[in-house]
Amino acid sequence: MPVTSAGENKLIICVLPDDGSDKKLMRALRDEKHLNTVNSVNCLGLAVLADAKTKYGKLPEPTLVRKVDVLVPAAEADALFDYIYAKANMGRIGGGTLLMAEVAAATVYTLPEDVPDEKR
């Protein structure tokens, strides 16, 4: 498998509430943007700006969130960043966090043609 060099790709990291918005985003990226370099995992998160009722010196209780990683060509990264923000409805209160970072290297791969899509 070919490996891309530094600067050819960017990683968009999206932290979303655990409300199904990650699956909707992943489907949209696949169906509308033809991306298959997307991954979603469960994580525990702390809302650093949210009101927290805890004892002094203690952290608030974490909540379940979804972390979505999207590897994109650098030339398309800014447009996809804006697309993800809008598609995941991140402008709402508690809508999540969106970051973009450089990628040192990435392995290019394709999915086999006969792999069926997941049930909707």
How would you characterize this protein structure?
By secondary structure, the chain is an alpha+beta fold. The protein has a single domain, classed as Alpha-Beta Plaits (2-Layer Sandwich), CATH 3.30.70.120. The chain has two helices and six strands. It has helices at 21-31, 77-87, and strands spanning 3-4, 9-17, 38-45, 63-73, 97-102, 106-107. The strands form two sheets. Strands 3-4-2-5 form a four-stranded antiparallel sheet, covered by helices on one side. A two-stranded antiparallel ribbon has the order 1-6. The longest helix is centred in the first third of the chain and has 11 residues, at 21-31. The mean pLDDT is 85.
Summarize the entry for a quick read.
By secondary structure, the chain is α+β, with helices and mostly antiparallel strands. It has helices at residues 21-31, 77-87, and strands at 3-4, 9-17, 38-45, 63-73, 97-102, 106-107.
Keywords:
single chain, 120 residues, alpha+beta, Alpha-Beta Plaits, four-stranded antiparallel beta sheet
| Proportion of helical residues | 10-25%
List the uncertain runs: none
The string of secondary-structure elements, in order, is EEHEEHEE
Biggest sheet statistics: 4 strands, antiparallel
Strand count: 6
Return the average pLDDT rounded to an integer. 85
Beta content comes to 25-35%
Tell me the name of the CATH class. Alpha Beta
Secondary-structure content class: alpha+beta
- Could you tell me the CATH topology label: Alpha-Beta Plaits
Arrangement of strands in the largest sheet: 3-4-2-5
Distance between the termini: 31 Å
CATH architecture: 2-Layer Sandwich
What would you call the shape?
Answer: globular
Round the Cα radius of gyration to an integer and report it. Answer: 16 Å
Number of domains: 1
Instruction: Compute the number of helices.
Output: 2
